[in-house]
Amino acid sequence: MRLVSIIAISLLAVACKKETEQEPSPYNRIANFTLEAGGATVSAAMSGDSILVYWPSHLPQPGTIQPQIEVSEGAAISPASGTAVVFKTGTAYIVKAQNGREKKFYLKVVISQPPIQIHEGASYTAALGGEAIIDNGAAMRYFDRDPAVTKFYLVDTSGNATEMNIEFFTQHDGTLSMRVKVPATGVKIGGYRVRISSGMLTHTTENYVFGVLYPSSEKPVPASLDAPVKVKRGETITFAGQKYFDLKDAIAYTYDENYNEKEIMPLPLVSFTTTSATYRIPANFPAGTYQFGDWGPNAIGIRMRITNFIGWWNWETAPKNFVEIPGYVAFTVAP
């Protein structure tokens, strides 16, 4: 009887042992993935086989990270938690379940910042040695208002980028603004694309929306006509002045019977120096004696077209800038 009891107890123990044995775990997922960013903890989000890390845009992106990782119970991960890995999209991890099943996960770095916006329906200008004040609420926005983080470049037609000094400030009405300073040297007159880099994002305008202009003080100054003028059609006429540069054809104009200004015709530019400009009177110019500087049907005036890059400027419509020749004299065009 005693022998039978011992055998029964032994069989029961074996049966219980078989019932409590468990199959190796098949789970191979990442339960938690965290890393330090600027003194704060950033937790990744899991989506399929992606480890999504939303990186704060105002922080520089490190070359490597040492994340703390939790995986399914009994599973192992390679590289191990705390191991330094390259911080870039595509860095791979392998999680191996207790039963040997493996799954790969891939790091995906997402910059937590809206795209930088630059309004290209506007034109931005600054003279050499001057500055442009730009609204950061509408014209240019969605970047860190810190010159240590945000950089502003002018990009020329050859793709060369020149960094400008910038300052951020708030105007009296509360408008967030940026002051872009253009140096007096090292930058050429003309139109430029704008490039803004902030954090990990960069945006460059499609169009040449920023005009670097001559200072207004450099505007050509024609001398006044102080003696009667007589010139034949087909001949040339020279106007004295100061600071002449980048001149183009002039325009002769008069007024109709209702005193509305109307163009007579262009005067082709022949040559110019810094103190004189010579134009040709067209062979078909209406002959007669006009009152230069007057206002009426028998009046005549002449405007010299100058550089596009002074005073008012717009990238979408090439401006036509002029300076008026002053004076009040008889102006005769002979056949």
Word description of this protein:
- The protein is mainly beta.
- It has three domains: 30-112, Immunoglobulin-like; 117-213, Immunoglobulins (Immunoglobulin-like, Sandwich), CATH 2.60.40; 217-334, Immunoglobulins (Immunoglobulin-like, Sandwich), CATH 2.60.40.
- Helix content is 6%, strand content 47%.
- The protein contains one helix and 31 strands.
- It has one helix at 2-20; strands at residues 30-37, 40-43, 45-47, 50-56, 64-65, 68-71, 76-78, 85-86, 92-96, 102-112, 117-118, 124-127, 131-135, 140-141, 150-155, 161-170, 176-181, 190-198, 201-204, 210-213, 221-222, 229-232, 236-242, 250-255, 261-267, 269-272, 276-280, 288-292, 299-305, 322-324, 329-334.
- The longest helix is centred in the N-terminal third of the chain and has 19 residues, at 2-20.
- The model has no long low-confidence stretch (mean pLDDT 92).
Task: Please describe the topology of this protein.
Blueprint: H1 2-20, E1 30-37, E2 40-43, E3 45-47, E4 50-56, E5 64-65, E6 68-71, E7 76-78, E8 85-86, E9 92-96, E10 102-112, E11 117-118, E12 124-127, E13 131-135, E14 140-141, E15 150-155, E16 161-170, E17 176-181, E18 190-198, E19 201-204, E20 210-213, E21 221-222, E22 229-232, E23 236-242, E24 250-255, E25 261-267, E26 269-272, E27 276-280, E28 288-292, E29 299-305, E30 322-324, E31 329-334
Parallel strand pairs: 4-10, 12-20, 22-31, 28-29
Antiparallel strand pairs: 1-2, 1-6, 3-4, 5-8, 7-9, 9-10, 11-14, 13-17, 15-16, 15-18, 16-17, 18-19, 18-20, 21-23, 23-27, 24-25, 24-29, 26-27, 28-31, 29-30
Gist of the model:
By secondary structure, the protein is mainly β. The chain is built from one helix and 31 strands. 21% of the residues are buried.
